[in-house]
Amino acid sequence: MDSKSKLFERIERLYDVGLIGQAKVLVAGCGSGGSQVALQLAMSGIRNFSLYDNQTLGEENVIRHACGLRYVGWNKTEALLDLLRDRNPEIKAEIHNEDLMETVDLDDRVRDASVVILATDNEPSRFRLNEACVRTGTPFVVGKVFTRGIGGEVFAYRPKEGGCLGCLEMLLERSKFRDKVREIDLVSQEERDAMYGLPVAEIKDSPGLNVDIAFITNFHTRFALDAIARRLPERPRNMEPIPGNYVAWGNRPVHPFDKHFQIEKMSLPPLDACKICQEENGDDV
Asked: Which helix (H) or strand (E) holds 24?
């Protein structure tokens, strides 16, 4: 097909698509965030994906998801793959309609990836993937949208260089970026106790409008491309390294943010108190 040879000609002048095209991206969670990041990566030249999600696309998902109404009722993984191939027919993907908490050989699957896109909607799966990535030395990038789309955060794990998700949570636990940024923080103690008594891993946040999510997924994608570039023999031109590994972004002046389009950045090293990092380094815990 003639269009294939011209598909990326407008961006090949910016950087060498061929340098990153062979990377393999594991997308953990193909919902509103994961689908948008996967689409952006496909449009950047990535051709190899492993897509994980055990849910189907509902009509209520469409207003924030990369996939539209014609995909309602599809498995999210299969819908996303069809969408990605509409942008690039050469895309290859492994489909996994399964719960990552029940995946037995998770370490092997993570080890095979150039980078993991951590876009699940619950803490247990995020931390299980965090531990697998630390054990296997695999980079991951995690994105989270705060309640009602007031903002969000993106964090990149860089093996042997930066801290992991456990380090991040310890650092932010008592900071303003963990104060009243989830729906569970806005309810009474009685309601919290009732919720915690239910057999659910986590109470899901309300992520707001797609435009609010898009700011976070764009940061998420850029950090993912940076993670891929860091593992190449040479960096693609015009893809300078991102110095920090954490970004908090405020869409509007609602706590914990003071103004529209507020950004906070930092570099998080491994923390001595983090058991996950200590175990990987062979330290006693």
From this structure: strand 24-28
Rounded CA-CA distance 153/77 in Å is 24
Helix (H) / strand (E) containing 126: helix 123-136
What is the residue whose two structure tokens read 């190899």?
48
| Neighbouring residues of 147: CB distance < 8 A, sequence distance ≥ 6 | 180, 181, 182, 183, 185, 186, 205, 206, 207, 208
Task: Convert the pLDDT of each residue in 81-92 to its tens digit.
Answer: 999 999 999 999
Looking at the DSSP assignment, which residues form a beta bridge with residue 49? 25, 93
CA distance 164 to 86: 35
List, for residues 148-198, the tens digit of each pLDDT value.
899 999 999 999 999 999 999 999 987 888 877 765 555 555 654 554 444
- Residue 257 CA to residue 233 CA, distance in Å, equals 39
Under 8 Å between Cβ of 20 and 65: no
CATH node for 2-280: 3.40.50.720
| 54 secondary structure, DSSP code | -
